[in-house]
Each structure stands twice: as C-alpha cells, then as structure tokens.
Amino acid sequence: MDVNAAVAAASAIAGLLTGVIAVLAFRWSEREQARPTRTSLHTDAVLPPGVDTVLSVLRSSAVVLDEGDTVVKASSAAYALGLVRGGRLAVDQMLQMARETRRDGEIRQVELDLPRRGAGRGEGLAVSARVAPLGSRLVLLLVEDLTEARRIEAVRRDFVANVSHELKTPVGALSLLSEAVMDASDDPEAVNRFAGRMQIEATRLTSLVQEIIDLSRVQDDDLLDDAEPVAVDDLVAEAVDRCRHQANTKQITMATGTTPDLHIWGNRGQLAAALGNLVENAVNYSPARTRVGIAGRRINAPGGDLIEISVTDQGIGISEKDRDRVFERFYRVDPARSRATGGTGLGLSIVKHVAASHGGEVTVWSAEGQGSTFTLRLPEAGIARDRALPPGTDPEAEADAYADNESADEPSDDQLFPSLPEHTPAPEVLP
C-alpha cells in the first residue's frame, strides 16, 4: 500500500511539472512571436512603405542595417563592391559610422579608399559613404563608387599639367632669345642667329597649339555631321605632299602603293591628319637616304571588309617597353630627338582617337634598329556608311555619290607590295 501511494505521488508530481513546463513554453512562444526577430527583419515588412522601391532605383549601392548590425537589405551593387559578406557589413569604417548614427541620429558622410577584391596592390576603390537613420531601428547606408570619376579627374590634371609644361618650354625659349637679340643689337650675325632660333621655337609653339586643337576636335566632333566617302588614294597623296619637303631634305624615298578604288566613310580632315601624322613621324625618325612606304589594301574580316593603310619606315625603331605607351599624350620615346625634330608627343594620340572614332584601330610593329610599321584598320565606306545611317535610310540612294567598289579589277597583293614589306628587316641605305 505504501508503494502504491509513493508511485501515485510521483506521477502527480511529474504531471504537475509537465504542465508547468508546457505553460511556460506557450507563454515564451507568444512573447517570441510578438517580438521582431532577425529573421523577420530580413523581410520587406520591416522596411517603411516605399523604401524598397526607392532603393531599387538608386544608382548608389544601398545597405539597410538593423539594431544588431545585421544586413536587412542590400542592393546587388553593394555585393558587387564587396560591401556585404555573409549577411554582415564588411567595411569596419562604415560599420562604425552606422553605429554612431544609430546612437545619435545624425547623418554622416565620408570618402574612403577600399581595396578591390581579387586585385593587386594599388588597384583600389574610391567610394563616398553616407549614413542616415531610417525609422526608429534601421540605418541606411548609401555608397557611391567614385573610382572612374577620380581616374578621369587624374587624366584631366595630367593633361593640363603636360600642356602647361609643353607650352612653357617654347614660350620661355622665345623670351630668352628676345632678350639675347636686344643685348646683341650691335652684332648683326648674332641677331640673325637668334632670330633663326626664335622662328624655330615659334613654329614649334604653333604646331603644339594646333595639335592640341586637333585633339580636342577629334574628341568632340560628331562624324555624322560631315561624314563622306574618302578615297584612300587622295589621303595617301595628301600625306606624301605634306611631308615631301622634309623627305627631300633628308633624301628619303617615299614609295606608295594602294589598291584602286578604296574608300573610307568618315571625316576627311581627321583621316588626313591621322595618316599625315604617321607619315610625318616615319620621315622624322628615319635616317637619311632610306625609304618610307605607304600601302593600302582591302582585307577580309568577320564583321565586314576593312581598309588597311600601313606606313613602314627604316628608322630607329621602338623598344618593347615603349611600344604600349607611344599612343599616350605627350609621351616621347626619345625626348632629345623629339626636340630636334619638333615633335610634340600628340601626333600618335590624335591617330588613336581618329581610328577609334571611325570604328577602327591603329597598331604598331617595331624593333630597335629595324624600323617600325604603323597600321590603320578602318571599316570600308559601304559598311561603315550603312552602320552610320539613321534607321529607315536607303543605303542605295546614299551610294550615288561614289561608284561601287566590289566590281573593281584589283591587282593581287603580290603585285602591289613587292617593294613594301610589312616589316623591314634592317635599315637600307640608298646609294
């Protein structure tokens, strides 16, 4: 009887404890359901009405943090920049700003340089971060990528600095020479000598200013405003005529050979300036009694036929380390030689911009002591014209200005280029 009583008492106690535990669990469950959890914060319901839509159309990267510094919402750009990783804000400076803003409600803004994920040293991100409270519990972080704007600004500063330096050199020389002329007023020979130097510096200054203007026009002009079919033969003849005096002075032979009836659709002035710069460089950097070749031909390409114009010289050549930089503004392979030839360092930059604006490219092959070959590749007139014409324009009606090129009887490349090798193996001095 005592055993049965003990068992009954134990069962009663166990039932009582089970009931207490069940009541406590129910109460705790109700309280947890009434309290916002981190999981519920990740839903759109915790964001104020309309905020989700606004964040989706912002250009800046957007991140919303809750009171536990957990990311409630983040734009795809924020993930792409590496701001959010594993549901947390990965940038300590921004996280500290968010905590301070949550504490005092003040809006904060700062510019930061962040390392780029997977990039080497020096390849970072420049960002502007702005933190503001969003409601009573959330904090909004907006991050704008300033990397490209910083790069453009740096290019602009470098260009202005380079222009200032290049202009200062001839202007300073003219000032000194004018003082020398005044001091040597009683010496006619000295006056003549200084006056000749002044003319050289004035010519260099004029060339520099003109090439700066040409570069600006190349970057700003719209080709559709004055585009026309331009004959390659005319461009070659104009380039040769432009450099004939310098070539004759150095006894340089200028050999030309082009396939008949080649046309390029574009701005005649820009195309003439680009080819003229290539030929002028070839003449200036070639030794006396050598040869400069200008050749034009049509080549097949997947997107349509291209016109290829090559300028080959037998000059000093370009080293491998300088080859990738020759198209930069004001870059000179040999500054001393550039001063002697009157080079400004803008000619090849103009060629590069002209080629790009016409849908083509310019390339260079060169070896020290073996000369150089600069090659312009541009879309043929018919193909480039059809791409440039507004929708609905009849290409056949626009083609009446020049004859159809496809049926022309073209000589073979072997007949055309027997004396103009693509790469001159060694300097050849003419007798």
How are the secondary structure elements laid out?
Elements (H helix, E strand, L loop, with lengths): L1 H33 L3 H4 L9 H7 L3 E5 L5 E4 L1 H5 L3 E2 L2 E2 L2 H13 L3 E8 L8 E11 L3 E8 L1 H37 L4 H33 L2 H4 L1 E4 H11 L1 H6 L3 E6 L4 E4 L1 H17 L6 E9 L6 E8 L6 H4 L11 H7 L5 H11 L3 E7 L3 E9 L1 H8 L6 H4 L14 H4 L15
Helix pairs in contact: 6-7, 7-14, 9-11, 11-14
Q: What would you note in describing this structure?
A:
By secondary structure, this protein is α+β, with helices and mostly antiparallel strands. The protein is 48% helix and 20% strand. The chain has 17 helices and 14 strands. The chain has helices at residues 2-34, 38-41, 51-57, 76-80, 92-104, 147-183, 188-220, 223-226, 232-242, 244-249, 268-284, 320-323, 335-341, 347-357, 381-388, 395-398, 413-416, and strands at residues 61-65, 71-74, 84-85, 88-89, 108-115, 124-134, 138-145, 228-231, 253-258, 263-266, 291-299, 306-313, 361-367, 371-379. The chain has a five-stranded antiparallel sheet with strand order 2-1-7-6-5, with helices on both faces. Residues 32-45 and 388-431 have low confidence and may be disordered.
Instruction: Give the number of DSSP strands.
Output: 14
Sum up the overall morphology in one term: elongated
Number of helices: 17
Strand content: 15-25%
The major sheet is characterized as: 5 strands, antiparallel
**N-end to C-end Cα span:** 138 Å
What is the CA-based Rg, rounded?
A: 36 Å
How does the helix and strand content classify structurally? alpha+beta
